[in-house]
Amino acid sequence: AVVSTQSTGEQKYLHSVKRGSVMTDTFAEVISSLDKTSTEKDGSLINSYDERTYKFEKIKFNLGNPLKPRDYSSEVISTPDQKSLLWESSGPRKSSEIAVRFTPRYFPSAARESLREEEETWLAKNTRAQSVVKLADGDTKEKERNPVWLADKASIFYKQGNFPAAINAYSEAINISSGLPKLYINRASAYIVLNMFENAVTDCSQALELLTPPVERNRMSRVRTLAKRGSAYCQLDKLQQALEDYRLAQQLAPEDQNLRVDVSLLENKLEFNTKTILQ
User: Fold this and answer.
1) Each residue's pLDDT tens digit, 209-267
2) Each residue of 53-64: b (16+ CB within 10 Å) or e?
């Protein structure tokens, strides 16, 4: 047979815990059932509450007063360890604020040493663009200071045949953002329609300078720009420069049959002109 070493109070307590109905009154009954005797030790009278008694009392108080600190001023501490066995609730913690300062960051990603030069270049361009926008007319709407909106507006004017208005819109967009090669290429097309070939050559040359480094991504843009400048050179009767541009364009796009035909025509015309001069 198994002999239980638990007291009657402990058994009542464990039974109540298993039932899930531990209440303050139950603990009062448990504690009242424990034997309280006094014995002499070293010539002094001490209370013989054992350690289990104080543990039960601690649990009883904490369940009955979960957030209320216990006041020991009115209680008689019989032993030095009695107070240490009782838990005193500290209540909720006080809230406070901590000031934190972060390094200014204009990009959503983390700083990278490898991207530092690229980010500084972007910031410099953005600063220039913002300064141009701030210098714009105060009566101008915000969207009218957006180079993308101006480019779209210029394209509408071009399709409508209003080429002067298209040139003005492209020019305004270039004043705000001078680093977009597409603006120069499209304005060159409008210049060619209005027979302003020198201006077209200038815009195409500027666009080619911006289309660097020469990579696959901007290959077709360079092809169109070279062909456009070659066309303007033809109108200015600068056939040799025109042939050089068309040959460069053909090297970039050897599959383009139109460029092959244009190169052949220019070569024949230059040969004819040379024979005519020699005669």
Assistant:
1) 999 999 999 999 999 999 999 999 999 999 999 999 999 999 999 999 999 999 999 99
2) bbebbbbbbbee
pLDDT digits (tens, 9 = 90+) for 98-125: 888 777 776 667 777 788 888 888 777 7
For 40: left if phi > 0, alpha if psi spans -120 to 50, otherwise beta; the answer is beta
pTM, two decimals, is 0.53
